[in-house]
C-alpha cells in the first residue's frame, strides 16, 4: 500500500476512535492549559484529543498534532479529513459500542497508545495503535486518525 493509502487508513482510524470515545462517555471538564498538556502522558494526550473531538474543538485537536504534521497539513484540511469519515459512519448507522485504552509504550521520545473499539452494528472489534512523539511542549500525535 502506498503512502496515500496508508494516510487514508490512518485518518479513518483516528476519526473512528474519536467517534468511539465520544459516544462511550469519555468526558472531562474544563479547559486544559498548555502547561498541563506538557505534563500529560501519551494516553492522556490521546484522551484530550478525544475530548476535544467530542466537543467539536478542532483547533485543540489540531494543536495536539505533531509539529511535522501541522507543517504539512493546514488546520482546514485537518478538519475536513476528520469530519468526512465521521459523517459517513453516521449516515451508515454504524454505532460504536465500546472502547478502552489497552496499552501504552514509551521508548525515548516515541510512544504508542493502543485501544480497542467495537462497531456493534457489524459485529467488528478492532485494536488500533496511535503513535506519538515527545516535543518540547509535550507528547504530540504523529498522524491524524478519524477514530480518535
Biggest sheet details = 4 strands, antiparallel
Number of domain modules: 1
User: What would CATH call the class?
Assistant: Alpha Beta
Task: Give the averaged pLDDT, no decimals.
Answer: 76
Class based on secondary structure composition and strand pairing: alpha+beta
User: Radius of gyration, Cα only, in angstroms?
Assistant: 14 Å
Cα shape: globular
User: What is the first-to-last residue Cα distance?
Assistant: 22 Å
CATH architecture: Roll
Count of individual helical segments:
6
Offer a concise description of the structure.
This protein is α+β, with helices and mostly antiparallel strands.
Description of the structure:
With 148 residues, this protein is an alpha+beta fold. The chain has a single domain, classed as Roll (Nuclear Transport Factor 2, Chain: A), CATH 3.10.450.50. It is 47% helix and 26% strand. The chain contains six helices and four strands. The protein has helices spanning 3-23, 34-38, 42-54, 58-63, 67-72, 75-92; strands spanning 96-107, 110-119, 124-135, 138-141. Strands 1-2-3-4 form a four-stranded antiparallel β-sheet. Helix 1 packs across helix 3 and helix 1 (3-23) packs across helix 6. The longest helix has 21 residues, at 3-23.
Q: SSE layout and pairings?
A:
Layout: H1 3-23, H2 34-38, H3 42-54, H4 58-63, H5 67-72, H6 75-92, E1 96-107, E2 110-119, E3 124-135, E4 138-141
Antiparallel strand pairs: 1-2, 2-3, 3-4
Which characteristics define this entry?
Nuclear Transport Factor 2, Chain: A, 47% helix, disordered N terminus, 4 strands, globular, single chain, 4-stranded antiparallel beta sheet, 148 residues, alpha+beta
Amino acid at each position: 500500500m502506498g503512502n496515500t493509502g496508508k494516510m487514508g487508513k490512518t485518518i479513518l482510524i483516528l476519526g473512528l476512535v474519536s467517534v468511539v470515545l465520544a459516544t462511550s462517555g469519555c468526558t472531562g471538564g474544563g479547559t486544559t492549559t498548555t502547561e498541563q498538556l506538557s505534563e500529560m502522558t501519551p494516553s492522556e494526550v490521546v484522551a484530550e484529543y478525544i475530548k476535544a473531538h467530542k466537543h467539536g474543538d478542532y483547533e485543540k485537536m489540531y494543536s495536539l498534532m505533531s509539529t511535522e504534521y501541522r507543517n504539512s497539513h493546514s488546520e482546514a484540511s485537518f478538519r475536513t479529513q476528520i469530519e468526512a469519515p465521521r459523517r459517513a459512519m453516521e449516515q451508515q448507522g454504524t454505532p460504536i459500542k465500546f472502547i478502552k485504552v489497552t496499552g501504552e509504550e514509551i521508548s525515548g521520545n516515541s510512544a504508542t497508545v493502543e485501544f480497542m473499539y467495537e462497531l456493534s452494528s457489524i459485529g467488528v472489534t478492532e485494536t488500533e495503535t496511535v503513535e506519538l512523539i515527545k516535543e518540547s511542549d509535550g507528547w504530540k500525535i504523529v498522524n491524524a486518525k478519524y477514530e480518535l
